[in-house]
Design a protein that fits this description.
The structure holds two protein chains of two kinds. Chain A is mostly helical. Chain A has one domain. Chain A is built from ten helices and no strands. Chain A starts with a helix and ends in a 6-residue tail after the last helix. By secondary structure, chain B is an alpha/beta fold. Chain B contains eleven helices and 14 strands. In chain B, strand 7, helix 6 and strand 8 form a beta-alpha-beta unit. Classes of the chains: A mainly alpha, B alpha/beta. The interface between A and B is medium-sized, with 27 and 31 residues.
Chain lengths: 256, 322
């Protein structure tokens, strides 16, 4: 109960802190919107409405991953810059419980861009939005968001030890869009990509959201999305103490 | 039992990367220092920039691992039991950083109250008490980005006290705040000590240490040069005197001549807009004023005064000899 409260309060206050900047908020919506618009134009040329609708859902989810992958790595560098990273480490709460709510809050901001991109597709491009299982669709989207937050948590942990690890987020952003089937079905990609995609929670998340939207059964994919996310979180927790101790040994908690 | 026990504590830093072409260098920031702080004591670490004060404090609050020696806080080893140490200590540093700018003062305190395990039922009351203590009641709803430096510093103090720590580490808390704010801060610290909180304070403001501290360790170059009460430190130079001479048309070219006068132990210059103040410290019973005035012949002089040594003079002597 105590841990749940800690995570909930941490998530809410970190979300509040991140969503206060109107510039950052606008950027977190405009950036994915730019990519989504390009994708909408591409698929519209094809004339296949089913593919366009499927791409619309995938393109909307891209924003969630972007919000996590780039922010999770840069956020601890930001905490380091503003002098709060040392205070977070100096708190008696296990560091993993401090960082987890922060990365889930980033994914939550990505959820806004998901909704806005869907609406953009509907009103600017006339892409029909009608979900077979609206409630399950919402559940799938929320689970995917949470699970992506868990992946971000592992990324963030690496940034505690290595100041330059913030660059990892940018490195992973585009490849994950491609590999996890955000835009192109996995079946269209080379065979060697499939095992990699199965290890990544976004693959199962995208599949679950699509299934919920277009009439399949999403529950297996929802469970796998959550399970793979949990594995990333478990690795992050297992490494957290070692990484923090290494940061204490190498004096990387502060900028100087 | 001492609250803080530091034994031969050392920390060195490596600069340069193992992948870069340049040679890796190792800098010894703290070189095997030892001291103890008793319960309820206000202990000062006094030293110039780069002396090793912040490195020492960061090892004691478990943010840095020592490369040598050991340290215990309230009986817990800072390396082996970091969580036990963290539960019982508070940490406040000076400057603008260390706060969430976009959150209100209240939300900052609420967040850290959660992280420091303040029971939910007590949080509201505890935050209200602390806001009152640091004089921020009524301002807690404003975003921190709109706070003045003094207000931020007071919020830092409130944050550091949320979980009622037994030991409070203050790392140059008055840096950059105005004299009134600094005085209020000293009053707050004095009030805390009167309630039994043990405080370790680092600063390079002599008057702060002189006014507040029960004992002081002077640190420079990573080593402790002297330790004692402010009076004991002052007594190290009590046999001598300090001659201050105001010079209006430059004194830099005469310093060597003054330094060469028998009985002069050190010479310093403090510059202001209109003049320079030559500070000449002398050995016991040395009457150097006529010789110093002779060395300054031809210069336009203002006030000439002789005074007793202060803590600052003792500090300058110690650091100069290091």
């Amino acid at each position: 109960m105590k841990i749940l409260r800690l995570v909930a309060v941490g998530w809410w206050l970190q979300l509040k802190n991140r969503s206060r900047s109107s510039f950052d908020g606008l950027l977190s919506i405009l950036y994915p919107l730019f990519f989504a618009t390009t994708i909408f134009f591409l698929y519209r040329q094809n004339g296949d409405e089913a593919a366009l609708v499927s791409a619309a859902v995938g393109a909307s989810l891209m924003g969630v991953w972007s919000a996590v992958s780039t922010s999770a790595s840069t956020t601890l560098q930001g905490e380091r810059r503003q002098g709060t990273l040392e205070l977070l480490v100096a708190a008696p709460t296990p560091f993993s419980l401090v960082i987890l709510p922060a990365t889930v809050s980033m994914a939550t901001i990505g959820l806004w861009s998901f909704i806005v991109t869907l609406l953009w597709g509907r009103f600017a491009f006339g892409i029909p939005i009608s979900f077979d299982q609206p409630l399950v669709f919402v559940i799938a989207a929320v689970v995917m968001t949470f699970s992506l937050g868990l992946v971000g948590f592992l990324q963030a942990m690496a940034s505690v030890r290595y100041r330059a690890a913030w660059a990892l987020g940018t490195l992973f952003e585009f490849p994950v869009w491609l590999v996890c089937g955000f835009l192109v079905p996995l079946s269209s990609l080379p065979d060697w990509v499939t095992p990699i995609a199965y290890l990544l929670p976004p693959t199962w998340g995208v599949s679950a959201v699509r299934a919920a939207a277009f009439g399949g059964s999403p529950w297996r994919d929802i469970a796998l999305c959550l399970a793979t996310g949990a594995i990333y979180a478990a690795i992050g927790v297992a490494l957290s103490r070692r990484l923090v101790d290494s940061a204490r040994g190498n004096a990387t908690l502060a900028l100087t | 039992m001492p609250v803080i026990e530091v034994d031969q504590l050392a920390r060195s830093y490596r600069s340069g990367s193992r992948f870069s072409r340049g040679a890796r260098t190792e800098v010894e920031a703290v070189r095997g220092i030892s001291f103890e702080v008793e319960p309820g004591e206000l202990f000062g670490l006094l030293g110039p920039n780069g002396a090793g004060k912040t490195t020492t404090i960061k090892m004691l609050i478990t943010l840095l691992l020592p490369t040598g020696g050991s340290a215990r806080v309230l009986g817990y080893d800072v390396v082996a039991d970091p969580r036990e140490v963290r539960r019982r200590i508070g940490y406040v540093f000076g400057g603008d950083k260390g706060l969430y700018e976009r959150l209100s003062g209240y939300d900052n305190l609420r967040y850290f109250a959660e992280l420091y395990g303040v029971p939910p039922r007590e949080q509201r009351q505890r935050i209200a008490e602390l806001l009152d203590l640091v004089g921020l009641t009524g301002k807690e709803g404003q975003r921190v980005e709109g706070y003045s430096r003094g207000m931020r510093q007071r919020l830092h103090i409130a944050r550091g006290l949320l979980h009622k720590p037994d030991v409070l580490f203050l790392d140059e808390p008055s840096i950059g705040i105005d004299p009134v704010g600094a005085r209020e801060l000293r009053e707050t610290v004095a009030a805390l000590v009167s309630t039994g909180t043990t405080v370790l304070l680092t600063t390079h403001y002599m008057f702060e240490d002189d006014e507040l501290c029960d004992r002081i360790a002077v640190i420079a170059g990573g080593a402790i040069l002297a330790e004692g009460t402010p009076e004991q430190l002052k007594s190290r130079v009590a046999d001598g005197h300090v001659v201050e001479i105001e010079v209006f048309d430059g004194v830099d070219d005469r310093i060597d001549a003054v330094r060469a006068i028998a009985g002069v132990t050190s010479v310093g210059v403090e510059s202001s807009d209109r003049s320079q103040l030559l500070v000449v410290r002398t050995a016991a019973a040395a009457q150097v004023t006529p010789a110093v005035l002779a060395a300054l012949e031809g210069r336009s002089l203002g006030r000439v005064a002789t005074r007793e040594p202060t803590l600052e003079d003792a500090y300058v002597e110690l650091v100069r000899d290091a």
